[in-house]
User: Fold these one by one.
Assistant:
Number 1:
Amino acid sequence: MKNKLVTHFHLKEVRTKDGNPSKHPIYLRITLNGQRSELSTQQKIEKDLWDKSAERVKGRSEQTRTINAQLSNLENKVNKIFLRIDSNDKRFTLKILLNELHGKTGSKITLLKAYENLISTMEKTVNIDYCLFHSKTIPLFHSKSIPL
């Protein structure tokens, strides 16, 4: 299946009580197979500094270059994640892409479970990767208290 990804940066309108212009937050809109989501980039600028067609901040100041670099990095990160997931040739959802972007992927394993997996691996590989000494100490790992 062919997945389609579209990304756009835009300014969010800010309403102030007194009508004075203020800084506008920059948002990233991600559209994947018709599903749309917006993410804050945590950046704010004045509206007159925004180049709508380039979807970047106008100017040559240090702050402008920093913000534009962060926007490019975010866009590249989204594209990398998309390409990695899309390489499976399966249709996927925007939620999967966003979870990957926020680092909420993969199964979470507890320390105890990781410890049990290590002991299990050690038991299977005694005399292969682990010496005979470990075959005598492995049962100690299973006990509730280890004698000191």
Number 2:
Amino acid sequence: MVDQNDQVKDAGSLEGENVGSVLHRDNHISEPKGVAEGEVKISEEVILQLASQALQSVEGVRPAGGSGLSSFGLGRKGKTIGGVRVTVDDGVPPTIMADTYISIKYGLRIPDVAWDVQEAVKVHLEKLTGYRVECVNVFVQGIHLHENPEKTEELLDEKVEPLQQDNDTLSTEEALEENQK
């Protein structure tokens, strides 16, 4: 095939030449530039961070703790970060299996939110890693009333004012003394 620069591409069909080489008009052959040999591996920690970011991008979702089995070292192996656990199979092509542990905002339809989580994690991981996502399991472990956890903590931290005693009310010590008389 001849391109605009009058170069013959894929000169591998010529005897003794490599596929992908370029045969120039003056009959010298050049190898493609920038092609390096080797492999690229992405650590599970990086994939966990990416999956956790995708999880947090879904409205009404908060990460929850991992499964109860994981605390005993049972179930699928791997770390849980930000409500996500991943397993990476280094086959060709590499594949990812993800488990997500979430809490959903009260009032949202759980199956719809779970589907949104699956799609967000799958698309985000496939786009940024180039790996194939085999599955995204969603474990709904709770519901929450407020979108951000700080509001819930503020409500829990509010102190109830102690009841003020009337002058007619006796303290516990005074009541004990009265009973002993």
Number 3:
Amino acid sequence: MEFNARIDKKSGKLRITDRSIFDQYIAEEAAKNHDYLYKVEITRLSKAKSREQENFRWGVMYPEVLKGLKDVGYKEVRTKDDVHEIVKNLFLKKDIVNETTGEVMTIPDTTKNLSVEREQEFQEDIRLWASEFLGISLSEPNEQKNIF
């Protein structure tokens, strides 16, 4: 079982993110009345994508992609949410496995837990695709563009 935690900088203590679930798990293990030895491993996770990265994707890239898709004939694509689903389907896929049959199904993954690095890769994937497929050059972060 895995649990996420943060180290409190002031106290130096490890704070379990979902403490109630952690406590419930420990209580269930204790109730089994087994004298098992447990391994606790601490691994540093990648830093989560920044709010600025997400705002850039939604506020700059998605509107430009939306316009590009409409310009090449995809009139049914009407919103940034539509664009979000399209690019997730293209670039954020994950496999889920039927544990009974072993069959694998590929589905779009979520952007919710992307690391800073993976968000950068995702944006670069979108940028390259837009250039090749839509023939447009998407804005870069901190770039000023003339919109007139």
